[in-house]
Amino acid sequence: MKIRYHLLALGLILMLFVVKIPDVIAQTPTLQSNQTPTEVQQLVRQGKEAYNSSSYSLAIKLLQQALQLATTHNGDRTQALIHSNLSLAYQQLGNWDAAQSHISASLQLLQPVQSQPDSPKLLKIYAQSLDIQSRLWYVRGKPEAALKSLQQAASIYIRLGDEAGSISSVINQAEAQQALGLYQQAYNNLEQIQQRLMALPDSAIKVQGYLSLGNVLLAIGEFKQSQAALQNSLALAENLPSSSAKTEVKSAALVSLANMFWAKGNLERDRYTTRNYNDIPWQCRERSQSDSKGLSLPNTALKLYQNAALQYQQVLAIPSSPSIRVQTQINYLSLLVETGQLSAAQALWQEIKLSDFPNGRQAVYAKIDAAKNLACISQKSATDSSVLPEIDHLLETAIQDAKQLQDSRSLSYALGNRGGFYEYLAVAALHKSGHKSISKADKNYLLTSQNLTQQALLLTQPITAPDIAYQWEWQMGRILAAQTKDEQAIAFYQMAVESLKSVRSDLLTINSDVQFSYRDNVEPVYRELVDLLLKNQINSTVSQEYLQQAIANIDALQLAELQNFLRCNLAQILPISRENNPVDPNAVFIYPIILENRLEVIFKLPGQHLEHYVHSIPRNALQDTVMQLRRAIYTRNPSKIRANSQNIYRWLIKPIEPYLQEHSNIKTLVFVLDGELRNIPMAVLYDEEKEQYLIQKDYALALLPNSQLFDLSNSQFEKPKILAGGIGEQQENIENHNFSSLNIDELQQIAKILPSKLLINSQFTPANLHKQLQSKAFSIVHFVTHGNFSSDPEDTYLLAYQQLIKARELNNLLRDDTVNSREIKLLVLSACKTAEGDNRAILGLAGLAVRAGANSTLSTLWQINDGSTSQLMVQFYTELKKGGVTKAEALHRAQKALLLQPEYQNPYYWAPYILVGNWW
Length: 920
Fold this sequence. Notes:
It is a single chain. Residues 1-33, 287-295, 504-515 and 575-580 have low confidence and may be disordered. By secondary structure, the protein is of the alpha/beta class. The chain is 57% helix and 9% strand. The strands form four sheets. Strands 8, 11, 12, 13, 14, 15, 16 and 17 form an eight-stranded mixed beta sheet that branches.
């Protein structure tokens, strides 16, 4: 087994699809000397050593020599084995054509063995070659072909009674199924594997099985299950008879646990803190005590980082090979630097001996990672100038090492990072000088950066590496923008976005590097492009084109954000194409776009061109206003609510008022909200001139998390029938949560208005829900139960009887083959809430709505456990029953009716209800 650390400096390295690489070199039985010349065996062994030290070009050279000798001796078996390993080595270098050629040659030579049941050695080589082929299909974006190849291999492993191969194959199948959107099948496979592993006697196979399972669960974001599997592997490793095997497994499991804690810590950090959209990758961002705006990180994040550190410390306490020790030290160094422990980081840096790393790709990445950490230490300790030559020398050495390896991927990464370093030098010098224009010295830094970045980008073309190409396209865009070459910069940003699109399906299911953060590594690409598109474009002749592109890119960002949250490719689960969504002739679309130094608002009236206006409101001021408004709503302070919400009204609605007055046919305002604005209800925006809230005006309101995800055609109800359920009883210790009793009177009341099937308390279970949904008789599903929306998928759930329904499980309830979610026009989630303080909590609601597949979702942003909810819901269904009214209009009327009642005039009672998706 070879530990895969994933080289923590690298942003978007594809995880090796086969968690334990089915490396034929390492795993096939040794061929007897009377069948294979000693010289061939020696070359193959040397090729294995070169591969394991990540010297892939050298491995290829040695294996090619072995293949040439094997060909002259007519050894089909030996040739097949060498071809498979050549494919694997070429895959590491990104030479997909050569990889395909060799794996095809291997499988062709081995094809006859399927009919020879008495050749187990050949059959195993054939199965492992199929595994290698599946990896090739997967990284090339063809998970269907990968799954087929894996299933073929699995049947051979079963035939051979090879439990280790069979378990590995099923785990890999689950990952391919996840990529294809076959979630239920994937989870069934993973559950099957856990059961099989539990049934096995303690052995090396069981230890490795849990380790592989833990890594795949980590890859698909199942942190809790991943932690359990990895800890099982760690515990069982203590009983291994071989001390070297024990050390290797323990090191691998501890590193994976550290990665898991680090990734969870980043999620917690991102939930409660923000980043500056204009930061560049080589700028060091504070992670420990505060973010860039002085806000403390949550203790939950700090504790997770501490747990990650503890795992690294345990690895370093175990006697291990120099290369494992150095890689762990560098990983730990990165964590210390990120969490602001500079003294400890500097002390650790003095202990690291990079020369202990064998020459290879990992050594190149280690030097780059070390350089980044040194740069961060220097920025935080204000010692830039003294350490800059050492940083540059490390990067130059990494470049020379990559050239010697003839490894285009690592060379591109080294060149691009050195370009990023010089970009940072230019930006840092500009900030220090306080000047707005670039000096000659700064320009030289930029030109050096541009030259290095161009070289890096050129190297990505022949190896088809969009996961790193996008980084250099983005970097080129920033460099050109710094030189005010906006048109050229836009072109490179657009290339970066296209590259991201081609790699995103892999990003969703791979084990992202623990330092990779969607917020830091993907979101800025879209926002910086939109910033450039809208910059100085007011009244220009090309503004319509750029406005359309700006909307398209924000739309793409929101789609990518949802996919990153859900860890799935939404294209696999969308029921219909959204490309030709009809336009409501009575709706206006409003797109606020939050940039670092301003708020851009684009809006579209029926049959009109896009319009655009700008507010010079800094992002931090907007964030403060939103935060204060949320706090005022929760504390039910009307004066503070109005004071803050009138500012947002002025930003979003006031400039549109003249247009709305000219178009008296407008009935619905559709908001495609951005960033922090998603955490407040638009109904509460206050018009200070007319002294009324937006909900009191004549417009119904709706939200779209993304314009591609919902069918926006007219879907008004004909004969609505409701499946309604909920939990009124107190529920305790449900996955460490306690839930108070709820007022669920509204269920009985809505059943008097429209035909309904009720599932209350103990009847409200996933099994009963699924059984009722199979009848396909319901167009509305209405839940009155505790629910939580969070940017953490694990913390997004609905309460069923004695259990939680997560977003994924809701998808399984509503989207399996026996249930047609297209029939469900409305999902109502009453009594739910968003996680307080979570900047991206609305992702949980949007994700749940998308997973459910219903045309629309009506939910609450905070929980109100009193009679007001029942009154609003009764009025809502009463309006729907009248007919000729859209869902948005019915909700609008119900909210206005509630507001008219003296005891419910405070926005706290009528504002939390939002309609997401189709408003018809």
